Amino acid sequence: MIEALQFTFMQHAILAGIFVSFAAGIIGSLIVVNRMVFLAGGIAHTSYGGIGLAVYFGLPIFLGASIFAVASAILIAMLTLKKRHRMDTFIGLIWAVGMAIGVIFIDLTPGYNVDLMSYLFGSILAVSTQDLYFMGILLTIILLIVTLRYRDILAVSYDSEYAGLRGVNVNFFYTLILILSALTVVIAIKVVGLILVIAMLTIPVYIAEKLSSSLFSMMFISGAIATIFTLIGLWFSYRYNLTSGASIIIVSAISLGIFLPISKRFL
Questions:
Q1: Sign of torsion over alpha carbons 165, 167, 168, 171
Q2: With a threshold of 0.85, does the pTM exceed it?
């Protein structure tokens, strides 16, 4: 794979993999400890509506998917803040409607034959310079928020009632976590696709959780693990001409399968 590094598309793919892996590790940790995995899956599939709108109106795919995903995250937050016991119903509804909107707008786009596979299973080798800017800026924002407001996020994630008594704006941080999750899902779609994005957000986190003593360490260990999985998966993809997103997830799943018996014996 060393010779492939001379190509711009491979350089972009590696940078994208690193950016997205660390963003997914940090946000994935918050998703897991806040029990939002199904919710993040709903946002991932709902963002397809934004892809359809972007295609129809000729907008950048990232922009359309991001706006739609953030709007969906805010709507989900509004609906579930007071009725969390109905969360699965709301997510299922928004999930289906979002994907339906995306399919309809793609059908209505004249003369456009969209490559559905690239959005369902990722297209990391097609990452552009503009995509990298978006990913880098988002990762920077996530790092700043987590660093500056770590104690508030920690309190809300583990005991929201206590956090509220301390004066923390629980609703704001709950919505903020959802918005950051939505944006992370959008950039992760470019790497592994919306079908596989949940695995990228959860497998490294599960491993990191066993190796961590705090939420902060879990975030960055999971980011490092996700980066390793992504780079190995990218190598397999290039070496054997396989779909990159699927290769990354298979590497992650095999690593988890190896890690589980080891962790039971030694951790």
A1: positive
A2: yes
